[in-house]
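Re: the 256-residue chain
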Amino acid sequence: MENLSSFAWLLSMENAVTTEKRRYILKISGEALREEGSKDNISPEIVSRMAEEIATAYERNDDLELAIVVGGGNFWRGASASARGMDRSTADYVGMLATVMNALALESAIQDAGVPCVVQSAIHMDNVAEPFIRRKAVRYLTKRKVVIFAGGVGSPFFSTDTTVALRANEMNATQILKATSVDGVYDSDPKTNPNAVRYEQVSFTECLTKRLGVMDATAFSLCMENDLPIQIFSMNEPNNIVKVLSGECIGTVVSN
């Protein structure tokens, strides 16, 4: 009975911390870590800038808790390799390993910027990362340690969009912050239509009706069913990471 009481107390404390804090899951694409036109897959300068912005946000916001999901597209795209004849499961596993490399680069930079950080991988790689354990990740977050989730969900056929949606729900996150190459969600492609209109706020239902393509279908449905807002913003503007982690409503917010 004493053990059960202790377990119930831990659960209540976890939920209390979750409601008092702003717990964000930041999604960063692998391509964002590469300098355009460079032969290097990872730019130390770009990674360092991201880490410094995260450190600045931590200094300014005592209520901030942060986890990160990073893609692997700067090294590998499983769907593309599969289309060229590679077995899809194998191609996806290679992509998961690419996310681990990016996660380690981010971890090192964030630690150097003065913020405690740890990588948890869905694929066991004990020499370089901890295995993903939900309750341990939550405990790290309550202690304001940045947690980077690597290795996707550990299974093929799932994108990093699905990873961030799954982990955000598991962590009882306040919001998903999705960094992209554009500054929000538009009614049409702003790269081809100069008259495209950007939404400041848009509902999940409207995104589905207008096929706005915020996330893949699996990830989007996870967020919609669990009432988890998504904020889409541009990675290309300096200090945008500081702004979104400080609660500023830049870009587009998708919610119920």
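The chain has a mean pLDDT of 90.
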